[in-house]
Amino acid sequence: GDSVTQMQGQVTLSEDDFLFINCTYSTTWYPTLFWYVQYPGEGPQLLLKVTTANNKGISRGFEATYDKRTTSFHLQKASVQESDSAVYYCVLGTGNTRKLIFGLGTTLQVQP
Amino acid sequence: EAAVTQSPRNKVTVTGGNVTLSCRQTNSHNYMYWYRQDTGHGLRLIHYSYGAGNLQIGDVPDGYKATRTTQEDFFLLLELASPSQTSLYFCASSNWGGAGQNTLYFGAGTRLSVL
């Protein structure tokens, strides 16, 4: 079945550090890959959506791409700020279902 | 901006109690979803619906019922609540095509404690 694996449970960085979060996915269908972000006390919200392999999604200073060959996708940001502290979910969507498959989430803590 | 409103925001009940969580979306979206969020498990889909009167079973449906009364309103029912259902519940909506291709818009969540 379809699945997504998000290995990094917690990441702690200092302001202006580089962020890189990686996930792997498995599906027999053409995938759409998403990154959702959840700030404390709120529901998740869409950060980025990537529909084509090796194309880059960009939003709020974050970049995301996915690699069909390695079935991996990642989120990066060149210089994180304390306000980026949140939980980041990698999410798999496939055209054959009306559901999304969420990774377990990566808690990012950015220290001033 | 898409709007999904959940009520109540917090709820405490006892084992065996009857609980109804409410969700209203004003986005004119077709799809609505109920998720639970637990440490170590992330977000798990309980039930979803693609229109009034429709119900689809999610990945963790046991112990939950749901009903979509109108395009705007989706309810989650726990008829015999158990402590294992203590969790943070999120409602979400999305447009035609469903969440596989479209953005999910989440509410702020309902925190349920079953004592």
Give a summary of the structure in a few sentences.
Chain A has 112 residues and is mainly β. Chain A is built from no helices and 11 strands.
Walk me through this protein's architecture.
The complex is a heterodimer of chains A (112) and B (115). Chain A is built from no helices and eleven strands. Chain A is mainly β and 112 residues long. In chain A, a hairpin with a 5-residue loop joins strand 9 and strand 10 (100-102). Chain A is globular. The mean pLDDT of chain A is 90. Chain B has strands at 4-7, 10-13, 19-25, 31-38, 42-49, 56-57, 65-68, 73-78, 87-94, 105-106, 110-114. In chain B, strand 5 and strand 6 (56-57) form a beta hairpin. In chain B, the strands form two sheets. In chain B, strands 2, 4, 5, 6, 9, 10 and 11 form a seven-stranded mixed sheet that branches. Chain B has no helices and eleven strands. Chain B is mainly beta and 115 residues long. Classes of the chains: A mainly beta (112), B mainly beta (115). The interface between A and B is medium-sized, with 22 and 27 residues.
